[in-house]
Design brief:
two-stranded antiparallel sheet, Helix Hairpins, mainly alpha
């Protein structure tokens, strides 16, 4: 039947007709997009962990210094001193804060690289850039 062409075949033919440089840039663009997604997932996990740590620190502040507390160590709950646990949680919070800052910088670099590649690709295929 004429006029009943399959779009997936057209896309496949179009990608086969692309010059190797553009194919390479498209592949890089996809790779950077995947990196950005992975960073976003890590950042989200760190933010959740940080919030839980901050909440635990807030709860510890409400307790008397000699209060009996337990820390989760794997599948066990181990009796612990409030001040030691508090210090441990502060260290964990500091580490998570640093990790979050690092991920934010990585995210920024990946975003810039994505925009650069996107601009190069637009120029290579002749699409005017939106400014």
């Amino acid at each position: 039947m004429p006029g009943n062409s399959r779009p997936d075949l057209q896309v496949n033919r179009m990608s086969q007709e692309l010059p190797p440089q553009i194919k390479n840039q498209l592949a890089q663009l996809q790779q950077i997009q995947q990196q950005a997604q992975a960073i976003a997932v890590q950042k989200n996990q760190i933010e959740i962990n940080l919030k839980e740590t901050e909440l635990a620190l807030e709860e510890l502040e409400k307790l008397e210094p000699d209060a009996v507390i337990y820390r989760a160590v794997g599948d066990l709950l181990i009796k612990s001193e409030r001040d030691k646990t508090k210090e441990s949680l502060k260290e964990k919070k500091d580490t998570l804060d640093l990790r979050l800052q690092t991920l934010a910088r990585q995210e920024e670099r990946v975003q810039k690289r994505f925009q650069q590649l996107q601009e190069q690709l637009k120029q290579a295929i002749g699409t005017p850039s939106a400014q």
